[in-house]
Amino acid sequence: MSNASYPATRMRRTRAHDWSRRMHRETVLTPADLIWPLFVTEGSGVEDPVASLPGVSRWSVDGIAKQAKEAVALGIPCVALFPNTPAEKRSDDGAEALNPDNLMCRAIKAVRDACGSDIGILTDIALDPYTSHGQDGLLDDHGYVVNDDTVAVLVDQALVQAEAGADIVAPSDMMDGRVKAIRMALEMNGHHNVQIMSYAAKYASAFYGPFRDAVGSGGLLKGDKKSYQMDPANADEALREIALDIAEGADSVMVKPGLAYLDVIWRTKQEFGVPIYAYQVSGEYALIEAGAAAGIGDREALLMEKLIAFKRAGCSGVLTYHAPLAARLLGG
Ligand code: PBG
């Protein structure tokens, strides 16, 4: 018998048994890698399902506190809060964002009361849940989102949220210069340890639709967000955005959406070595749910394969509406 033709290297050898596959696994996912986005609505005892996000609801403040406790029990380190502001409180200038007693601030306080420091509270800095036009900032007469005046409001929004107890403020607006302005204001007001996770590379994406339903801004939005969110064709530009936000004082950066932008995550990790988080956005969640419902694959397997891809590409963690399911699967 000739042995001249055997493969010099048998890559399958280490895959032959489960113990060996576990031993050779290069990347791991744990509940500590998950950030759970939650939608808040007015009222008490309210659970209001989001039709375009099967399995996701808007909770009143009391319910948000319960969800946060569940997150703690599952080993999820952080929740991200998003308000569904009542229509009558939305305005052209989004002034409700600066009300220290707004839905968001009450939710922050309720989570803090329920969980103490067992959980991080991440809050979104942008005006879209508060404006009557659904854009993230202030408009000029032509409907263009103006940069510097918007940044001035975002700074106040960040301070209001930090006062209420936010641990991480996350500007998702894509205005220029906002990370520096927010950092300076936090420092000057004694919030030295409030972190900034900047939505540094946020694309003008078709995957945000269900989120806009959930916060009630979708029906209001006229036009698109392409004058501030990025063109999906660009990656070098994302690296410039990320470099700027790091220089301006971001503690961590986000790439959003997730799966379609793994190259940006990878390049960011290689070039800057900073903590990176992917936002597996609402449309990505809905596609997994729709795929599973259509019998295309097993929901849990589809989810876990996508989540590990973020870790493999270099993420420190993932914002995902599937966080509680993933944490349970991971034994949290
Ligand atoms: C608001 C914001 C959006 C998302 C997070 N923060 C929507 C948008 O930019 O229109 C999307 C999240 C998701 O789709 O899950 N600035």
Question: How are the SSEs ordered, and which strands pair?
Answer:
Elements: H1 18-23, E1 34-41, E2 47-49, E3 57-60, H2 61-74, E4 78-83, H3 103-115, E5 120-125, H4 147-164, E6 168-171, H5 178-188, E7 195-202, H6 209-214, H7 236-247, E8 252-256, H8 262-272, E9 276-280, H9 282-293, H10 299-313, E10 317-320, H11 323-329
Parallel strand pairs: 1-3, 1-4, 1-10, 4-5, 5-6, 6-7, 7-8, 8-9, 9-10
Antiparallel strand pairs: 2-3
Helix pairs in contact: 2-3, 4-5, 7-8
The structure holds ligand PBG.
Q: So, CATH architecture?
A: Alpha-Beta Barrel
| Rough outline | globular
SSE run: HEEEHEHEHEHEHHEHEHHEH
| Binned strand content | 15-25%
Number of helices: 11
CATH level 4 superfamily: Aldolase class I
CATH topology grouping: TIM Barrel
Catalytic activity: 2 5-aminolevulinate = porphobilinogen + 2 H2O + H(+)
EC number: 4.2.1.24
Protein name: Delta-aminolevulinic acid dehydratase
GO molecular function, one term: porphobilinogen synthase activity
Gist of the model:
Pathway: Porphyrin-containing compound metabolism; protoporphyrin-IX biosynthesis; coproporphyrinogen-III from 5-aminolevulinate: step 1/4. This is Delta-aminolevulinic acid dehydratase. The chain has helices spanning about 20-25, 60-75, 105-115, 145-165, 180-190, 210-215, 235-245, 260-270, 280-295, 300-315, 325-330; strands at about 35-40, 45-50, 55-60, 80-85, 120-125, 170, 195-200, 250-255, 275-280, 315-320.
3D structure, described in words:
It is an enzyme of class 4 (lyase). One of its GO terms (molecular function) is porphobilinogen synthase activity. Homooctamer. There is one protein chain. This protein is an alpha/beta fold. The protein has one domain (28-329): Aldolase class I (TIM Barrel), CATH 3.20.20. It has 11 helices and 10 strands. It has an 8-stranded parallel beta barrel, surrounded by 9 helices. Strand 2 and strand 3 form a beta hairpin. Helix 2 (61-74) crosses helix 3 (103-115) and helix 7 packs across helix 8. It is globular. It starts with 17 loop residues before the first helix and ends with a helix. The relative contact order is 0.14. The mean pLDDT is 97. The structure holds ligand PBG. Ligand PBG is lined by residues 124, 126, 128, 136, 172, 208, 211-212, 225, 281-282.
